[in-house]
Amino acid sequence: MEGQIGRWKQVIGDGLRSHTDKAQVTEVAIAAEVLNRMLDLGRPESVRVA
Prior knowledge:
This protein is mainly alpha-helical. It has 2 helices and no strands. The protein starts with a helix and ends in an 8-residue tail after the last helix.
């Protein structure tokens, strides 16, 4: 969990940059998408052998 928070702070920083609610929602959605892609890239793809 702590590692995920660290990655989140790398993506979005310590706070939101936008000032309006609508812009903050968009900013969080973009950051969440970027974080999810980063996590997917680091996750191994397993294949069932037998």
